[in-house]
Amino acid sequence: MKKVVEFDRTNSVSIFWDFENVRQANQAKFLLTLAKSFGRLKNTKAYAQWRKEHQASEMTLHDLDFDCIDIPRGGKNSVDAKLISSCYREFVDTSTIILVSGDGDYRLLVSNLLDEGIRVIIVAGRGSLS
Hints:
The protein is an alpha/beta fold. It has 5 helices and 5 strands, in the order βαβααβαβαβ.
């Protein structure tokens, strides 16, 4: 008999941060506090060309236990593509996703997550929400 594994989405929160779009490492503590107000923190991922441009910010986020995902090749939307694919792989047992970006390229992702019953919170820099 095959055992069925059910995922418990209850109160699990993941942060997916497009640092190329919202470059404010000083807001990391706020994001963690916000995430914890919705439940148990599951993932904290920030995507950028860390080695090329953002080494000091990477250290700040790393010290706060963010997984800093380096995107070594900087083609147009390369950060977006990696973040979107990671989010689709990992949303299965998540009840809330905090997406840090003002980029309109995430519209389809947000729509699909909402269709799956995932709460989506978008955090963007002032004037950057597309």
